[in-house]
From TrEMBL:
It comes from Panicum virgatum (Blackwell switchgrass). Gene3D superfamilies: Cupredoxins - blue copper proteins. This is Laccase. Residues 1-35 form the signal peptide. Keywords: Apoplast, Copper, Lignin degradation, Metal-binding, Oxidoreductase, Repeat, Secreted, Signal. One of its GO terms (cellular component) is apoplast. It catalyses: 4 hydroquinone + O2 = 4 benzosemiquinone + 2 H2O. Residues 44-157, 169-321, 450-568 form the Plastocyanin-like domain.
Amino acid sequence: MASSSAVPSSVSAAAVAAVAVAAAVLLLAAVGAEAETRKYQFDVRMASVTRLCGTKSIVTVNGQYPGPTLFAREGDHVEVAVVNRSPYNVSLHWHGVRQLLSGWADGPAYITQCPIQPGGRYVYRYRIAGQRGTLWWHAHVSWLRATLYGPIVILPPAGVPYPFPTPDEEVPLMLGEWWRNDTEAVIARALRTGGGPDVSDAYTINGLPGPLYNCSAPRDTFRLRVRLGRTYMLRLINAALNDELFFSVANHTLTVVDVDALYVKPFTVDTLVIAPGQTSNVLLAAKPAFPGARYYMEARPYTNTQGTFDNTTVAGILEYEDPSSAAAAASSSNLPIFAPTLPQINDTNFVASYTAKLRSLASAAYPAAVPQSIDRRFFFTVGLGTHPCAVNGTCQGPNGSRFAASINNVSFVLPATALLQAHFAGRSNGVYATDFPAFPLVPFNYTGPPPNNTNVMNGTKVVVLPFGATVELVLQDTSILGAESHPLHLHGFNFYVVGQGFGNFDPVSDPAKFNLVDPVERNTVGVPAGGWVAIRFRADNPGVWFMHCHLEVHMSWGLKMAWLVQDGSLPNQKLPPPPSDLPQC
């Protein structure tokens, strides 16, 4: 059990919200005997939202924050008709959806599409293939995903059970961040001055900051009412812009059964860690007898950053229905409340131990198809660096410079035309180059003392892969401006995490320790602070696919690149033409 300490019950008093029932009703709407086409209408528009004694206008879908849940079964087709009624350019990404032969629907602005301009519309069409679990959707332009996001719940095909005990209820839990100020103004100022952006004012659970923040209203706490003896599947999603998060429920354990919509060998923990972009399904068993207490569900950051960060804690409340009291809802606020004991904020050993527990199910029904032989090997350094300040300018980065971030010393610059459109039209000239370095051009001691020159180069470069190539990629953190963890997300593919470690990757000794039997399969992986991670995947999806840090500030500074996978020889290995309503730049 998670260790806990008693907390005065006066920190919160609110009416109970019946969220699990609402989630169950939504899940029933997805039931169907055959693969179907699930259609959704997303109106992107502004809405006024009040949190922490302040009201501001935010970008939403259908006026909801967080946005609506998208439900589908494995094998279903999905159509989302998006109308942009906001003042911003918008694109939506379906984070983790493979998008097999549907790259036009992937969503990152200026990579697979030009953004939907104010007043414009676009229908995203794709199929859910070989995936079941929890994913999520979010804006993929500027910092709009601070509020423009929601869950994707993918059920198994009708009649196919979970490979673990079926939960009684399922509840999406989205961890996010809240700024009192306009986040578009926050990142615009940071990019203008070259300094770091203002950190968030709070973390949130399903859009609510909880009772531990000053000026948090009673209605601003997420509450989960549970019944004795039942099992709940919490569909956890880290939608925070810039922070990896620890998560724990006081006096309860969590059994991890799925990450990034892929089953894993179940294991039980008191606390888990989840990086921005990652998802995890966990089972929580309610107590068999009424405990006479309430329990905080808490999240707070894991970080090794040298800079400032939001060092606060968000809490929701898990409370039990009292079968002996007709007035249980009214009396529950008088019960004692317990808080979990979370790891230290920089507990890298805990994070390494947790991630080492993740293993693919690797069963006959859900095999681990790890590439055993490799066609192309890559070694990418990832980390922070600098750009020089303009002549006679004043910048707020290190030593008067501007913050930058890069992969193999290339800080990615978004083009004016979407890469996929340029590739399909055969007009790459002046849009992108195909000479992204496979290895650092100048090797150095990546995790040792920083080099004297911390400047990085700009470029819009891609790696070209033949269809079907097997790829091994080692991602190496650098200590140029301090070692940090970097969650990297690869669009269009899942990959196997075959190895990880601390210090500099050793190409002679480290591959011998790779797990090629049952490594965890993901779409987002954390590069350890001061360490490395090795992944393998098969380039079986033609198109242009973004890979980037899911810390939004690092991506804004250029920690991103793209893979261009060529068409195969067969008709079902070729990218189809773009849809007629694809937005134009």
